[in-house]
Amino acid sequence: MGRQILEIKNLKKNYPGAFDLSIDSFSIGSDTTCVLIGPNGSGKSTLIKLINLLEEPDEGQIIFNGADILKSGKEKPLYRKMMAAVFQEPLLYNMSVYNNIILGLNLRKIKIKEKKQVFDYLIEKLHLEKLLLRNPKSLSGGEQQRVSLARSLVLEPELLLLDEPLANIDQLSREGLRKDLFGVLKDMGRSILYVTHDRNEAMMLADYISVINKGKIEQSGSRADVFTKPANEFVAKFVGIESLIEGIVIENKDNVCRVKINGSSIFAVSGFCPGQAVTAAIRPEDVTLYSDETVGPGYGPDSYSKNSSALNLLEGSISAVQDFGFFKKIEVDCGFKLISFVTANSIERMGLMAGKRIKASFKASSVHLFEK
To answer: Cβ of 158: how many Cβ atoms within 10 Å?
Structure first.
């Protein structure tokens, strides 16, 4: 991630009767967007408040631009001025939209002409041109949040903290604001910590993802690593992997494992050794379904190959079909549960329905193993 603008070490905060926040290590690189995802009540907002010096931890370090800001004493307000935060609920004042947006500049004694270029850019990109003279009380929730975002972004902070800024907005407004906001964030190239429980937002925005649960970081890594190589069962489920299959590694040739599962076996690209108990995680979009009798040569357990693109082929019956509108979730019983996403057109073309016998295939490289 290059230079780290923020480092957290051994940070702890106790909430009696609730949970303990305990972050051993966490960092954000310069000009990097880190998305922190996790369920409600996992500690996401608490971490934002600690970083923004709105709360004090019980122990630990928050190192911002090389300085431990928890020990900065009278300089704490200076460090807070280098950050800006937007929360779920817009906090706007009884003044015009224009005056709300420049409020932070006034408090920092920054002349508007010094920020005119970024001000004009934000007004255009966040579609606030016709709202500048209005009172925030007359705006919709989505419009109010656009004003809050503009007020923070016009400061061009070294670190921007966004705590689920789209969570309380209706779906139609949220989709429009998400598109506009994400475009602005990528254009401005700031260091950003974006908090959400929406994995789709994480996929769209993140350079780097951290998953938090019960006050602890479960996994940090690139978008691809977290979504395709989860560290454990919690992370796998949270990023949308429902096919989690327990088995035993019975063979490994050139880092292609054969994993025994309920009398059957699948291949996976991994370094696990024979005898190790593992969980196989397979994303639903990596599973292809076939209704015909032949799917081509070289498939199945007898096609053992060191080629990571080798396909697993399993037979089973459809145990459930769940409708999600443009696509359907198909649950296949292959002696274990296997999930696939299929378009409505494919459902109709293949005549897929509960009880139908089906074949399912997936690459060995699409199977991620982690220790059971």
So the answer is: 17
Domain ranges within the chain, ordered by starting residue:
4-236, 241-371
Classify residue 17 as exposed, middle or buried by CB count within 10 Å of its CB (0-12, 13-18, 19+): exposed
CA distance 92 to 136: 7
Tens of pLDDT, residues 238-251: 999 999 999 999 99
User: What's the CATH number of domain 4-236, 3.40.640.10, 3.40.50.300, 3.20.20.140, 1.20.140.10?
Assistant: 3.40.50.300
> What is 241-371's CATH number, 2.40.50.100, 3.30.465.10, 2.30.130.10, 3.40.30.80?
2.40.50.100
Answer yes or no: is pLDDT of 306 > 60: no
Of 6, 24, 361, nearest in space to 208 by CA: 6
The edge-to-edge listing of strands for the beta sheet with 256-261 is: 264-269, 256-261, 243-253, 277-282, 367-371
What is the pTM for the complete model shown? 0.89
305 has a pLDDT exceeding 70 = no
Quick count: other Cβ atoms within 10 Å of Cβ 347?
Answer: 17
Rounded to an integer, the average pLDDT of 225-239 is 96
Q: Which residue has the tokens 């004003």?
A: 147
User: Mean per-residue pLDDT for 27-41?
Assistant: 94
- The whole-angstrom separation of Cα 29 and Cα 365 is 30
- Indicate whether 293 pLDDT > 80: no
Tokens of 279: 């969980």
Rounded distance, CA 193 to CA 210, Å? 10
- For 159, 276, 324, 340, the CA distances from 263, given in Å and listed in that order, are 53, 16, 33, 22
- Segment 34-49 shows an average pLDDT of 94
- The residues with which 163 forms a beta bridge, in sequence order, are 195
